[in-house]
Amino acid sequence: MKTSLKGVGAALRGALPSVASVASLASLALAAWVAQTPAQAAANSPADQTLVQRGAYLAQVGDCAACHTAPKGKPFAGGLPMTTPLGRIYTTNITPDAQTGIGGYTEADFIRALREGVAKDGHNLYPAMPYPSYAKVNDADAKALYAFFMHGVAPVQQANREPDIKWPMNMRWPLKFWNLAFLDKSTYRDKPGKDAAWNRGAYLVQGLGHCGSCHTPRGVAFQESALDESGSAFLSGALLDGWFASNLTGEHNAGLGRWSDEDLRTFLKTGANRHASAFGSMTSVINNSTQNLSEADLAAVSTYLKSLPPAAGTGAPPYAYDPRTTKVSLERPANDAGARVYTAYCLHCHGADGHGFAPMLAPLAGNPNVLAKDPSSLINVTLNGTGDLVIDGVPSPFPMPAFATVLDDQQIADVLSFVRAGWNNGAPAVGVEQVSKLRKSTQAAQ
Ligand code: HEC
Ligand code: HEC
Ligand code: HEC
């Protein structure tokens, strides 16, 4: 509001030399006030405009839109359902609308919600809002975010929806104890002995980027079992909502050990590289967040990730491509149920050599997701296909089709077991019961 008043003040000063009476000046000011969107008002002062723009960038880094903008909904008006261990909850309206959004939040209220998970009226937020990660965000960035949400976002009147959690589980006070146990309230502090890029990357990955909220395994109380690289489970891969978020440590098969710094930057910028493509819940991270990172921040993120020592490996030797056995099965698919399905439904895109046409069509040979212990992502992507990856406004031309209505559970288990054994991938077979389970849970979620 302060910025808007300043804007009006500037308009008034500009109008003063005219002959207008005080009364008409006041109405002129009022008209200017009403006609201006908050963003325009903020634009009147270059300093504030810079702050709002910086906040807009940080909101992309934090991927606030992924949760606070529902499909086909107005930006940041909330309403997206999220599944938690207690039941379904809905994201809230964080537009500056005074009645239904956060228009009444002071800067201090906003920063407390962001970093400590407490709403203005004092109620605790469920940690589905990733405040345990956002706790690391420094004051300057938190203030820029506030400036953006107050002056760069259009207010939307849309009431919040109550969580579908029944009494007594819906009581929020136990979250205070959860916070005592699991919330580290200190903002990120640079680690001595590490260079500026490493520290910037650590700050972004652990903090606003909240990569660990999907990629770090969770403990019994749904807490992330490590919040930085001091814990070996940090970013070592985790199952959430039917997708296995890959191992991002230096592990050489299922992790990023075989990826160069450039491979990693290409993936985060474009959603695909010579090893793999983005799919599942990573698609929206690329669409809304990482493709917008500045070159410097992208480099920082990959410097930090590439420094993580290998974790959660199986002890298998580093992957080496070998197509011989697979070539034989594909030449005589009669004896191999998986090879038959692959030949009929997958080969024309992913290739007999398993290389696909990377980065357009994902390779399956040596792909870290194919080599991961947990096959959930592979089953899910084969059943349900992929949502559109949109880079620079252009949707990907050949998305992975959904096979849920084309192949039965046994065929999917067969083809994925074939893919996991193929080209020397050496990953364990997929059981038909694993496919049935994911088919049921992903259908229920739709
Ligand atoms: C992974 C999903 C997710 C992301 C990402 C996320 N939020 Fe939230 N946020 C939520 C949920 C869910 C709630 C409501 C929780 C509840 O009702 O207990 C919430 C609540 C809030 C609130 C409290 C407002 C209220 O009335 O409930 C604020 C403020 C907020 N988020 C700001 C942000 C900002 C700023 C960002 C980006 C930096 C962000 N959120 C990113 C899920 C998310
Ligand atoms: C909403 C959940 C979610 C969040 C948040 C998330 N990821 Fe992911 N990520 C996934 C899933 C699921 C996959 C596996 C599918 C794929 O490869 O795209 C994945 C895959 C990846 C991969 C590819 C790894 C491989 O072996 O193919 C990289 C790299 C990655 N994520 C980096 C990041 C970074 C960096 C962040 C934080 C800025 C992040 N992710 C945040 C869910 C998430
Ligand atoms: C029309 C071409 C096409 C066909 C047919 C196809 N896929 Fe895909 N597949 C893709 C594309 C493209 C991706 C990359 C994700 C994306 O951008 O949608 C992909 C991704 C995948 C992935 C995830 C790997 C990664 O890193 O992205 C797996 C696993 C997979 N496909 C398995 C299969 C199986 C099994 C079949 C046959 C039952 C099959 N695909 C048929 C195009 C295809």
UniProtKB/TrEMBL annotation:
Family annotation (Gene3D superfamilies): Cytochrome c-like domain (1.10.760.10)
Domain Cytochrome c: 50-153, 196-309, 333-423
UniProt-listed PROSITE patterns: CYTC
Signal peptide coordinates: 1-31
Keywords: Cell membrane, Heme, Iron, Membrane, Metal-binding, Repeat, Signal
Localisation: Cell membrane
First-listed, main subcellular location of the protein, grouped into a coarse class: membrane
The name this protein goes by in its record: C-type cytochrome
The organism of origin for this protein: Paraburkholderia sejongensis
Taxonomic lineage of the native organism: Bacteria, Pseudomonadati, Pseudomonadota, Betaproteobacteria, Burkholderiales
